[in-house]
């Protein structure tokens, strides 16, 4: 019980720390916006990938639908971006529910492959359906209305919008960390057959998780579209983006509240630091780190940290239980 | 009719190369039960190695093949030993993430070493064609199809006639039983991965005369390999040949008669349909 | 079909390819009893459990639970109706703590975390696992994990509990503790079916025993009657008791 509110306090502390970012790194606002957006989207990915254990490599599709919905509604119908964002969230959760309904009968590598296939098909549609999406030339968000006089293309405004989005994503996974729904997801991840014996319907639970993950990812995608202001299928619908979100969550620590955020800070920060050395090859760091994490710290940075703490504070916890069966 | 035949035969030739990429992936899955998400990157590696050999030493890609095969087996075995063997017993998402990581390292090292710009080689036969009846065959693709056939026959021979081939098939069927029979399954896995990588690299070499290469081209081939193996049945090596040909023809016909922009989508749609309706692949269940 | 019957299995056949794992098995479980299900290895005990708890749809035959036809219903629906089960190969959620494992069970009856946690603690106290509540389930030894399986199933607040080899592999002291626990659970009004290999345990615990051999029911009755049944003795001595080929 107390643990739960300690986590909530930590979320507050993390968000407060982030609010200082524009003052500390005024010249690195672009990086800041990308960090909070990717932290939020990786957290959203983690609802399905980490908490429910359903590794998706197709989340770029959801980012893309979110971004395209906002942009197209704005460009073609003059609908303000906040409605576009909500419409994108609604649309992606419906798409994800249908997508999940089709692919969740597949387990293991087959599920992963199917997410890639669906996302790739969607990318090809976006490239070819030129009348709707502008095809490979992409879309350009030239102007947007100014809610409360705020310029949505101002990096500081974008940063705080992104931070609000990250805050919501963190609150959602905080809820997962103690609620019935969250435990149902973890049960499915740990052992689907066993979960069924506990009264959990795996398919409907996974579909709900996918829809929730999708809606949040789309919200991030909408903000990302505003940040980019010009985007095309190779940016927001590419499998590379799907892989990036998954690796951020995994390297930070899948299925933990703060893992994806830590992953985003570490990976995007490092990629930025080394950009001058590696130019376009900045994903090299992702590759090296995921190999190291998989090999040596399967629970990611967060898990590795916990193991370290435990080693330092007390001996290994593997003590056999001596059951007596009496009431103590 | 001639047009149809032309389109169909082009599909068959392309399909031959797809089959070669897919067989490697299928062999690895069959023996090791892991999906190699770095598979396409090994195709790219084969391309760039042949490119380098051609540009710096003037070695023709076809002449480089023995070197590519041996190098591929060694590299694959090494990668298996260092990266895959330690996590072979872990849940499947672990090996997926591991191979994704290996693939990212390879493609980014290529990017680092060769730059992002498209490169190609021009040989005297790059634009040569062969005409049979009214149908024109691309010279390099025809040669690569023949080489593919030879490689497949060679692989078949290795799998059925040699000790190590039997070890790999035994490991594929039942790892525990194979170990009880005294088969060193660790070596079988190393070799399976090595051969799989070599096959991928060979297809890269065969495609070099007809393609522009970029360091990130691997992703395309990883996807093709997935489609081929799922169509043929995961782990079904012979099925992968059929899967490759079907994919090549589907793409070719789809691009010609439906829409060329959706060329890559036809395979993916077939892939999803097979995954959902016939998860064992189009050709039943036999493995390796 | 007596009025106090909580579960009826009628004419169940289960075929896996060419193998007939269950042949025309019928049995009925009375409310409040402990029914022992025994038989040599491969007799079909676990298969029968899987049919009853919805993990397998029987090739033929029907299952009725609490007076309702439940054949082919998925396991989670049966759990919600009040059927709890354990697995022969224990499978607690390894990364979660002991408390969280049980909590997942008690969340079936309430979505309130506070209520679920109270129930979980109650179950932990009943099963003697309370001192280990915050340990990861993976850190328990076999006895602890088996105990946790029972605790999770109990947390579902079941009417019927299926226990699959919950004492196999335990030492005598651990076995006695588990037997005591099973009796106490029954005293709370929960009907129990036990699959067990350890003959001493099942004979002492069960009100009634059903014997399976090669997928057929070969005997049924009070423990003493069954123990002296020639067909049962033959089956356990490894002769071809069920009429099928011996191995």
Structure explained in plain terms:
The complex is a heterotrimer of chains A (328), B (288) and C (247). Chain A is mainly α and 328 residues long. Chain A has helices at residues 2-19, 21-24, 29-51, 60-77, 81-103, 109-128, 130-133, 155-178, 180-190, 192-197, 202-228, 233-236, 239-252, 259-273, 275-278, 284-296, 300-313, and strands at 139-140, 230-231. Chain A has 17 helices and two strands. Chain A has a two-stranded antiparallel sheet. The radius of gyration of chain A is 20 Å and the shape is globular. With 288 residues, chain B is mainly α. Chain B has one domain (2-277): ABC transporter involved in vitamin B12 uptake, BtuC. In chain B, 73% of the residues lie in helices and 3% in strands. Chain B has a two-stranded antiparallel ribbon. In chain B, helix 1 (2-32) packs antiparallel against helix 8 (185-207), helix 1 packs antiparallel against helix 10 and helix 5 runs antiparallel to helix 8 (185-207). Chain C has a single domain (33-55, 74-236), classed as 3-Layer(aba) Sandwich (Rossmann fold). In chain C, strand 4 (60-65) and strand 5 form a beta hairpin. The interface between A and B is large, with 45 and 40 residues.
Brief descriptors of the model:
heterotrimer; A: 328 residues; mainly alpha; two-stranded antiparallel ribbon; C: 247 residues; alpha/beta; Rossmann fold; six-stranded mixed sheet; 9 helices; disordered C terminus
Topology record:
The complex is a heterotrimer of chains A (328), B (288) and C (247).
Chain A: H1 2-19, H2 21-24, H3 29-51, H4 60-77, H5 81-103, H6 109-128, H7 130-133, E1 139-140, H8 155-178, H9 180-190, H10 192-197, H11 202-228, E2 230-231, H12 233-236, H13 239-252, H14 259-273, H15 275-278, H16 284-296, H17 300-313
Chain B: H1 2-32, H2 39-57, H3 61-84, H4 92-114, E1 129-132, E2 135-138, H5 139-161, H6 163-173, H7 175-180, H8 185-207, H9 218-232, H10 237-257, H11 263-277
Antiparallel strand pairs in B: 1-2
Helix pairs in contact in B: 1-5, 1-8, 1-9, 1-10, 2-3, 2-4, 2-8, 2-9, 3-8, 5-6, 5-8, 6-8, 9-10, 9-11, 10-11
Chain C: E1 5-16, E2 19-30, E3 34-38, H1 45-52, E4 60-65, E5 68-69, H2 75-81, E6 83-85, H3 98-106, H4 113-127, H5 142-155, E7 160-164, H6 172-187, E8 191-195, H7 199-205, E9 208-213, E10 216-221, H8 223-227, H9 230-236
Parallel strand pairs in C: 3-8, 3-9, 6-7, 7-8
Antiparallel strand pairs in C: 1-2, 1-4, 4-5, 9-10
Helix pairs in contact in C: 3-4, 3-5, 4-5
